[in-house]
Amino acid sequence: MKVFPAVALKDWACKRQDCDLYWSETERAAFGKDKWFASALPDVVALPHTAEAVAALLKFAGENQIPITPRGAGHGYVGGCVPVHGGISLSLERMNRILEVHPEDFVVVTQPGVITKELQDAVAKVKRYYPPDPASRADCSIGGNIATNAGGPRCLKYGVTRDYVLGLQVALMDGTLTRLGGRGHKNKTGFELSRLFVGSEGMLGIVTEATLKLLPLPEWRAALSFGYRTMEAAARAILALFDAGLLPSAVEIADAFTLQAARKRTGTKDFDGCEASLIVEVDGLREVTAIEIKRIREIGSMEDPVFIKEADGELACEQVWQTRREFSYSLRDTGLTKLNEDIVVPRSRLVDLIRFASALQKELQIPIACFGHAGDGNIHVNVMIDENDPRQIQAGDKALDRLFEQVINWGGALTGEHGVGLAKKPWWPLAADKSVQSLHKKIKTALDPQHLLNPGKFLD
Ligand SMILES: Cc1cc2nc3c(=O)[nH]c(=O)nc-3n(C[C@H](O)[C@H](O)[C@H](O)COP(=O)(O)OP(=O)(O)OC[C@H]3O[C@@H](n4cnc5c(N)ncnc54)[C@H](O)[C@@H]3O)c2cc1C
Question: Can you list the pairs that 190-196 forms with residues at least 24 positions away whose Cβ atoms lie under 8 Å?
Fold first, then answer.
């Protein structure tokens, strides 16, 4: 086995002074996992302060054949930043400055380690809006969002992270630091190379700076929460909203198991008697949101809801979303292990998916909780198992196989926002045919010939 060149790396860092290194086992363990189940110990954690240090570190890793795994805030859901082959865990958390907010150009220029919510709050101060809103936005980083092409509830109306990336500075394995794209809202100069790095899960290069598009901050937000007796009723209400020509900023659904867990965690009585809930939010001019809310109330009422609750304005809407953001944690509180799959189905398959999940849980005798971004068919299907019960572990594996196979057959996708990482690696061949796999490998090899950047993930 190759000996890790610790002395040479210490020497390197000492000369530069813009990259800290952590060597203790406790520190290394803290950087060896994310919010999924896998963990691995890197040989060292490197925390660069500058883009130049990142590029030089990649070059050092290449020259010494050391695996190097980028890491944002470690709030991924698929083990993407887990350094499975050891080597260097490259944390971007110290590159955490917003470099420029330019309200007239509608851009923000930022280092990758900035926390998403902090960036959103900073641009809101000058009446600008950065819409992508992963439920983890208070904890995850912009660099991680770019590398996973993160989405969230508002992506129904506003699109995902990809749609806001105007330009990137990227460090490559050969030590090159390059600028791709720019700060103009339109740019068709050459290939769209900046987008190649969006969603590349840290396997092609390291994002060291991002120029992101901003929108005008909507004047007002308003939302309606509905409780329904069945998931089918909620799904029908969603389709009726679209048929009426409405495009809400978010449409979120949750099933009975999720609502029960949320009740326990938050103490809310809101969902009593409900098997499903729907949150529909709109934004824009205040008068317009009032008209839309009235219309949504009429349409949602056609499915005979158990309750309708209105939230008018920023504060009231945030309270609604606070409960929604607790869903994931509520499922964890059940004590069961949550296999969270952020699958996507074509919109017309929403009711089919709900029926399929319900049949699967009956057949395999394990709970399956569904909630998520119903408006764009991106549902978090959570297979809940007791890890101490071998029968349930087996049933969980079977459930995932069956779920992914069905989703792909419907023309859907394994993952809408979390990425493939380690979690979905076994199903990558199911989702990508040979020609797609081969193209991925060619691009990977062109940029990282020794396959040292984030190794052990779905391309290995
Ligand atoms: C409670 C909870 C709710 C969530 N809800 C959502 C949601 O609604 N929508 C959603 O999309 N996701 C969601 N996620 C998943 C997760 O938060 C996102 O994937 C997020 O983008 C990860 O960001 P991070 O900074 O934590 O990245 P990390 O976990 O640190 O890394 C993620 C990936 O990005 C790579 N990477 C990180 N920084 C860089 C960089 N600068 N350059 C190159 N590669 C890099 C890593 O190698 C890794 O492959 C949720 C997670 C949790 C725990």
Answer: 194/165, 194/166, 194/167, 194/168, 194/170, 195/162, 195/165, 196/443
Task: For residue 23, give the 3-state DSSP assignment.
Answer: coil
CA of residue 361 relative to chain centroid, distance: 26
CA distance 111 to 444: 24
Q: CA 349, CA 459: separation in Å to the nearest integer?
A: 30
User: 312-359 pLDDT, tens per residue?
Assistant: 999 999 988 888 888 888 888 888 998 989 999 998 898 899 889 989
Class of residue 173 by CB neighbours under 10 A (exposed 0-12, middle 13-18, buried 19+): buried
- Cβ of 303 below 6 Å from ligand 1: no
* Mean pLDDT of all residues in 380-401: 94
What gap in Å lies between CA 422 and CA 441, rounded to an integer? 17
Single-letter amino acid, residue 279: I
Three-state DSSP at 304 gives: coil
- Range of weakest confidence among 70-74, 145-149, 372-376: 372-376
- Ligand 1 atom having least distance to the Cα of 416: 11
CA nearest neighbour of 37 among 81, 71, 77, 83: 77
The residue whose two tokens read 């190759």 is: 2
- Nearest 10 degrees: Cα torsion 377, 131, 34, 114: 170
**CA-CA distance, 170 to 173, in Å (whole number)?**
10
Distance 454 CA to ligand 1 centre (A): 14
In whole angstroms, what is the distance from residue 456 CA to residue 445 CA? 14
**Rg of the chain taking only CA atoms, in angstroms:** 23
Distance 424 CA to ligand 1 centre (A): 15
Q: For the whole model, what pTM was predicted? A: 0.95
DSSP string, 171-201: E-TTS-EEEEE-SSS---SSS-HHHHHTT-T
| Cβ neighbours for 227, distance < 8 A, ≥ 6 positions apart | 270, 271, 273, 274, 276, 277, 305, 306, 307, 308
Residue 1 has pLDDT above 70, yes or no: no
Q: What pLDDT, in 10s, does the model give residues 76-111?
A: 999 999 999 999 999 999 999 999 999 999 999 999
Which residue blocks in 227-349 are alpha helix, DSSP H?
231-243, 256-266, 286-301, 314-325, 327-333
Cβ of residue 455 lying under 6 Å from some atom of ligand 1: no
* Alpha-carbon distance values, 56 to 12, 410, 446 (Å): 9, 45, 19
Q: How far is the CA of 141 from the centre of ligand 1 (A)?
A: 7
What's the mean pLDDT when you consider all of the chain? 95
Instruction: Judge contact between 360 and 385, C-beta under 8 A.
Output: no
Residue 241 pLDDT > 70, yes or no?
A: yes
